[in-house]
Amino acid sequence: MVLETISSPQDLKQLSREDLRRVVDEARQALLEKTSQHGGHNGPNFGMVEMTVAMHYVFNSPVDKFIFDVSHQSYVHKMLTGRAQAFLDSAHYDDVSGYTNPKESEHDLFTIGHTSTSLSLASGVAKARDLKDEVYNVVAVIGDGSLSGGMAYEGLNQIATEGTNTIVIVNDNEQSIAINPTGGIYTALRDLRESKGQADNNLFKALGFDYHYLDAGNDLDQLIALFEEVKDANHPVLLHIHTQKGHGVSFMEENREAFHAGGPYNPETGEYLRASNASETYNSITTSFVLDKIKNDQTVIAVNAGTPMFMLNQDQRKQAGKQFVDVGIAEEEAATMAAGLAKNGAKPIWYVAAPFMQRTYDQWSHDIALNNLPVTTLVYSASVSAMNDESHLGFFDIPFLAHIPNVVYLAPTSKEEHLAMLDWAVEQNEHPVAIRIPVGPLRETGIVDTTDYSILNKNQVTQNGNKVAIFGLGNFYALAEEVAKELAAKHGITATIVNPKFITGLDEELLDSLESDHQVVVTLEDGVLEGGYGQMVASYLGDADLKVQNYGVEKAFHDRYNAQELLAENGITVDNIVKNIIKVLD
Amino acid sequence: MVLETISSPQDLKQLSREDLRRVVDEARQALLEKTSQHGGHNGPNFGMVEMTVAMHYVFNSPVDKFIFDVSHQSYVHKMLTGRAQAFLDSAHYDDVSGYTNPKESEHDLFTIGHTSTSLSLASGVAKARDLKDEVYNVVAVIGDGSLSGGMAYEGLNQIATEGTNTIVIVNDNEQSIAINPTGGIYTALRDLRESKGQADNNLFKALGFDYHYLDAGNDLDQLIALFEEVKDANHPVLLHIHTQKGHGVSFMEENREAFHAGGPYNPETGEYLRASNASETYNSITTSFVLDKIKNDQTVIAVNAGTPMFMLNQDQRKQAGKQFVDVGIAEEEAATMAAGLAKNGAKPIWYVAAPFMQRTYDQWSHDIALNNLPVTTLVYSASVSAMNDESHLGFFDIPFLAHIPNVVYLAPTSKEEHLAMLDWAVEQNEHPVAIRIPVGPLRETGIVDTTDYSILNKNQVTQNGNKVAIFGLGNFYALAEEVAKELAAKHGITATIVNPKFITGLDEELLDSLESDHQVVVTLEDGVLEGGYGQMVASYLGDADLKVQNYGVEKAFHDRYNAQELLAENGITVDNIVKNIIKVLD
Predict the structure, then answer these.
(1) Structural domain for A574, as ranges
(2) What whole-number distance in Å separates Cα of residue A448 and Cα of residue B340?
(3) pLDDT digits (tens, 9 = 90+) for B306-342
């Protein structure tokens, strides 16, 4: 195996063209074995094998700087920079992250997991080079999907303005995470592909780039020739390279949306091995709700930025017709378009993963909240127990969203509550409402929730007690019940249990009433402690005769952690919470 | 006067072409009188007079929907939609805001004050129209400066994708707030202007727009003809209209950067009437510091997004040469470019106004903080006492920034501290550091600050006392001193006074030590209460034997308020703070 002999790109440069081709084949085989067993970003990496080999063959990393957009397509780059074992030996599969990571290698400049940032990073890296009077290539690789993000355009502008060496590789596999929308940049790229780069009105040329088109983006020889042609250019170059997503694996080539990411799967048939999910989940009831609303009201519209499959599959999107819109990987557009929709009498339901919602602070504040528009936002993966890559953490949403005026952010604790909140959010016309879709097993109360959510910040006391009051926010409501149970069993204390429901405001009447017969108030939230819900409670009760104990996760970019362990490290266990309560009771 | 007879656009439509021209002249005269006495956005409005009259003459607002980007150029629109008095009668100058405002008029769809949002809003408004099977024009007006923002590009893409009626007017006056950079979109626009719209590689056509160019953008007849031509189009149209910033006022035409906004000024000579600011301010010492660093270290670079004049004037920028970069009104690019600069060994100093920093949450989190890069960020206008338009509030920066891991956010209280923090921030290599430039009169201690800021979260106790500890953060440190003085004078209490210096973390040792001989801890911060600094203190001390009283402004979009009144409404007066302290003391 040639791949095993490559411990750095220097080794690659010594190989014959034939051996390089063997590296391509071996790398693709390693990808198939690892991703079929381990899961990961499939299609993007299979399409990039030849290009990555050619990049390392022609350029000189780490002197030349490679920046991969999102960096989910960097697996072969990792194989060629001393980390092949993590793809060849299943015992070492977890040695590397799924993204570039400077802690792993000097060939990885940045930790990256979000879209459309590579060109801005490259503009800075190149400018620093120029300030220091150094000479080398800065090479950024960005997919056609990522080009829909506004930051990519800002980066293109800045690179063109600097006017010095930066080589932008547009890896155009004709597909974002989902199928590309038609129009705008996608149509511009299609016109360029169909004309082999000769179309009138080339927007990259308009912005000032030296533009090159390569149709055979999985042809090693042509890639090498192109890179050699532009290496060491003294001006901004844009290489528009047409690749095939999932190249070399028939079921990936055919079903590109399903094989963007996922696994494990059967490497022969492409059948995903995950258990079929027949039972109801919070996600599935949300999807049913949304489809039902769409069917019954032509002004309801589901809005999403580039990850539609997490709510609606391809059939369901077809069913929704013009009442569904995917704006591309352009979260800001999704948020502000939703504001425009709401203003003009439509009922937008925008769904977004917590780690990517954080791309839209100003759109939340200035467009949705300042204008106080009834946009319904469904926030998924907002939990310590959701994605656990340091670039994909979903538990900063409360400090992010809860302190923006006018926003109503809700934390359901059961199926019934979730459905009632959803319905209220979509049908009311007074507030921007976000709902933190619960993460965890579906909890059913069996009782239809008839709460009037227009009475803001009204908490639900689910058990009346004394001495101790426990506020279990959203996902942690069940934990509050467990703590109360333990207090009763071990210490004979009947605690008050509160389901706050509202993240964005306090039930001041309830909090005031606790002072008379409670000694300690405990808040539990499935998120970061700092700037969270509990700290608002602590502040409000700051000069009351009550102790307040807030639980949440310490702010840090925790990486590939075990959720239970992380919670335990932060004291979030029934035993520890009970112990701390008992400590402060008279 | 014809203008006085126009109470709605319907009145305008009845006028002869000659009378329309009189309206143009009268509107321009009213602008001159009001802005010279009252200040405001000058250049953008003077350049838009003819276009605004033509828009209201041809289109049918409010059935047709007008959306003005930033909306700082909407003064004439206001004059023509029932609000002329606010421009003709000085007693009524304050009746209207400087931006569109739905509370003022049905002709104003949105409250807007930030850049590049208009096209996304338009895409939503148009889509809602289509969902409801309604028919009318959606018209968005965006300047060439605003086109540099990534959201504008996302909006263009979505409008093109929808493929129905939206008319985008690019008001190209060849200038952003400052002089435009060269390159990218600015060069693309220049090529189109110079070729009268005929340039090869038209990026608007590439994105799918029906493109029209008008060179004579201050010619009423040509504007009317163009609008009549495209009105009721069934597809996306882009009108590239070349106007003159400050048109009709010679000193504005000549000095476009100075006359973007400001005032009052002498309407004959264009001389600004503000007192010359010879004495030192926090801004002036910051500028001197930055220029000095640039002079002595070729890797230092000042980075800014579209508002360079708030730190460096035109001469100073020239002096900085390639060690200054204005990326256009593209805050995300500025932040992430700074990350790239820092990664590659440069020392970026990014300066940004608090209300616009909020356009960069994900760039802060994912690009700067996750990668833990030594970017120095100087945050100005972060105070209740800074800009007071609801779209320009600068006091949400603490909940925004303080809960992102790895960030060190500093709050200086004096000239000496500010300079010491600046120097440490730029020269260290361990942390992303932001400094909240003080707002208010320069305070000098006369003692050089030799603090080692690499010892994070170490607070300074400036007076040792007992019973009461007062934490005066940044701008409110002086208030803490006043409260302490009053406590001493009226109640014989010597309070502990703390200058926290660090916003992003607590001095736990100090806080722990207070429990033995203090009864109440008071926090004072010049910002929003919710999610702020004080709430972290309250949480930390939640189960200590101490009361905590947090002061800050209640979260809301306060609009055109008087700062002293707003603070008083939020209990932030010496008397009230002292009263509440005494109340909880034994």
Answers:
(1) 460-584
(2) 53
(3) 999 888 999 999 999 999 999 999 999 999 999 999 9
Residues B483-527 pLDDT 10s:
999 999 999 999 999 999 999 999 999 999 999 999 999 999 999
In a domain, B454, yes or no: no
Of the residues A436, A470, A485, the one at which a domain ends: A436
Q: Could you tell me if B305 and B336 are in contact, meaning their C-beta atoms sit under 8 angstroms apart?
A: no
Best B344, B392, B401, B518 member to test A by mutation, with max A CBs in 10 Å, is B344
**Domain identity same for B287 and B224:** no
Residues B428 and B331 grouped into a single domain: yes
* Residue B127 in contact with partner chain A when CB distance is under 8 A: yes
B113 close to A (CB below 8 A)? yes
Place of tokens 């300047």: B143
Q: Are residues B330 and B255 in the same domain?
A: no
B361 touching A, CB under 8 A?
yes
Give the Cα separation of B124 and B166 in Å (integer).
10
Q: What is the pLDDT of residues B386-412, one digit of tens each?
A: 999 999 999 999 999 999 999 999 999
Domain presence at residue A324: yes
User: Do B249 and B295 share a structural domain?
Assistant: no
CATH of the domain at A527: 3.40.50.920
A420, A325: one domain = yes
CATH number at residue B244: 3.40.50.970
Number of domains in chain A: 3
Q: Does A154 touch chain B (CB under 8 A)?
A: yes
Is A367 within 8 Å of B120 when comparing Cβ atoms?
yes
Q: Which residue of B has its CA nearest to A398?
A: B531
Q: In whole angstroms, what is the distance from residue A15 CA to residue A23 CA?
A: 9
Residues B492, B352 within the same domain: no
User: Is B383 exposed, middle or buried, given 0-12, 13-18 or 19+ CB atoms closer than 10 A?
Assistant: buried
Last residue of a domain, one of A205, A229, A262: A262
For B372, left (φ over 0), alpha (ψ -120 to 50), or beta? left
Residue B579: both structure tokens together: 């009263």
Name the burial class of residue A57, with classes exposed (0-12), middle (13-18) and buried (19+) by CB atoms within 10 angstroms of its CB.
buried
A318 within a domain of the structure (yes/no): yes
- Based on the domain organization, do B54 and B197 belong to the same domain? yes
pTM (2 d.p.) = 0.97
- Tokens, residue A289: 């709700």
Same domain, A292 and A254: no
Residues of chain B positioned with their CB less than 8 A from the CB of A402: 530-531
Give residue B538's pLDDT band: very low, low, confident or very high (50, 70, 90): very high
Instruction: State mean pLDDT over A223-230.
Output: 98
- The answer to whether A195 contacts chain B (CB < 8 Å) is no
Predicted-assembly ipTM surpassing the 0.95 threshold? yes
CA–centroid distance for A266 within its chain = 26
Which residues in chain A are contacts of B187 at CB distance < 8 A? 160, 207-208
Cβ contact, residue pair B328, A154, below 8 Å:
yes
Contact between A203 and B203 using a beta-carbon 8 Å cutoff: yes
Is the residue at A427 inside a domain? yes
One-letter amino acid identity for A314? Q
pLDDT reported for residue B273: 86
Q: Do A536 and B536 touch (CB under 8 A)?
A: no
Residue of A nearest to B125 (CA): A340
Cβ neighbours, 10 Å, residue A107: 21
Percent of chain B past pLDDT 70, that is, above it, reads 99
CB contacts of A142 in chain B (<8 Å) are none
